């Protein structure tokens, strides 16, 4: 049996140590609220301070290959509402498989406008490849 995996590792600078603490507290509260849920919205990633206590940079990464790209996006948008982040932020992800399978490898990237609190773009290597093989221009 093959295991399908999603990997990502990215940084989010929230600007101040107080905001970093607020982000960690928010994720803890969200996890407590979702305890026992069949399909938690804010799972599939780990959030840790990148530069230790007193820093403003947070490290988000997949949880043992079971990364949830949508969970990260939901969390960052929720966090943005709580602590009023602005600017553009984004991250890349890789889709892999423990065994050779067709259509099991690829990846993509997402960009979020934190001030507008919405996704402004994304791309998928699978969609790009399919369009390129059809001879189409691909613009994500």
Radius of gyration: 17 Å
Sheet-strand content, in percent, reads 25-35%
Q: What does the oligomeric state look like here? A: single chain
Summarize model confidence as the mean pLDDT: 92
Structural class: alpha+beta
Describe this structure in words.
By secondary structure, this protein is of the alpha+beta class. The protein is built from three helices and seven strands. The protein has a four-stranded antiparallel β-sheet with strand order 1-5-6-7. A three-stranded antiparallel β-sheet has the order 2-4-3. Helix 1 (17-33) crosses helix 2. The protein is globular, with a radius of gyration of 17 Å.
Using brief descriptors, characterize the structure shown.
single chain; 140 residues; alpha+beta; four-stranded antiparallel β-sheet; three-stranded antiparallel β-sheet; 3 helices
Provide a short characterization of the protein structure.
The chain is an alpha+beta fold.
Secondary structure blueprint with pairings:
Blueprint: E1 4-7, E2 9-13, H1 17-33, E3 45-49, E4 57-62, H2 69-83, E5 88-97, E6 106-113, E7 118-124, H3 125-133
Antiparallel strand pairs: 1-5, 2-4, 3-4, 5-6, 6-7
Helix pairs in contact: 1-2
């Amino acid at each position: 049996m093959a295991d399908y995996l999603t990997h990502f590792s990215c940084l989010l600078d929230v600007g101040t140590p107080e905001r970093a603490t607020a982000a960690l507290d928010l994720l803890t509260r969200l996890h407590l609220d979702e305890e026992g849920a069949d399909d938690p919205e804010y799972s599939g990633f780990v959030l840790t301070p990148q530069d230790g206590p007193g820093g403003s940079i947070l490290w988000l990464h997949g949880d043992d290959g079971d990364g949830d790209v949508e969970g990260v996006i939901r969390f960052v948008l929720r966090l943005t509402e709580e602590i009023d982040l602005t600017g553009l932020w984004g991250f890349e992800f890789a889709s892999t498989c423990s065994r050779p399978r067709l259509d099991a490898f690829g990846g993509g990237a997402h960009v979020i406008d934190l001030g507008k609190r919405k996704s402004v773009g994304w791309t998928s290597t699978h969609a790009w490849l399919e369009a390129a093989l059809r001879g189409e221009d691909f613009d994500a």
